[in-house]
Amino acid sequence: MRKCNRCRQVKLLSAFHKNHWQCKECRSITEKERPRRTPAQREQDRARQNHRRKENPEKNRAQALAWNRKHPQLVRDRSKQWAKENRDRRRTLWQKAEANRRARKKDQFVENVDRHIVYEMHGGMCGICKQFIVGKFHVDHVIPLSKGGLHSYANTQPAHPDCNQRKSATIIDG
Fold it and tell me: How many CB atoms lie within 10 A of CB 16?
């Protein structure tokens, strides 16, 4: 038996939430009476949280890692869901990472090369067959990484997938 701090009635313990001194009935009334935060206040809270995160990146990272270790299945599920919803973004990130990995593996200079900038630099024209590219394209290394070429804007050109695969790891003169 416990006495409610609000209605002052003595009730069974089952009428109370754990570690609360108001009965469930009074607690729900109190919750409804509590003033809600305005959108401006919520925005201030978010800004304060973001500032704290930026001020303590190591602590934030440690908390994120701890949470990820505690919820591995949820992390996997969210990752799969993101990949399903963002196929194009995932493909772009994978292509960038793969190009960087290949260049680092050959101990070459690695510049952050954006495939769309390469396409625009060459006016959308295939660097191998000199025809305009419509649709999918590869970023071809003029001097292949395997032959000592750099992963940079100066050594890349857009190419049709067929042209690039036919060229393989050869250097085309001209």
Answer: 19
SS3 for the chain is CEECCCCCCEECHHHECCCCCCEHHHHHHHHHHCCCCCHHHHHHHHHHHHHHHHHCHHHHHHHHHHHHHHCHHHHHHHHHHHHHHCHHHHHHHHHHHHHHHHHHHCCCCECCCCHHHHHHHCCCECCCCCCECCCCCEEEECCCHHHCCCECHHHEEEECHHHHHHHCCCCCCC
What pLDDT digit, counting tens, does each position of 8-53 carry?
A: 999 998 898 888 888 999 988 888 888 888 999 999 999 999 999 9
Which residues, 6+ apart, have CB-to-CB distance to 22 below 8 Å?
4, 5, 6, 16, 30
Give the separation between CA 137 and CA 115, rounded to whole angstroms.
9
CATH number for domain 108-167, candidates 1.10.560.10, 3.40.50.1580, 3.40.50.2000, 1.10.30.50: 1.10.30.50
Token pair belonging to 101: 């990995």
Give pLDDT tens digits for 127-136. Answer: 999 999 999 9
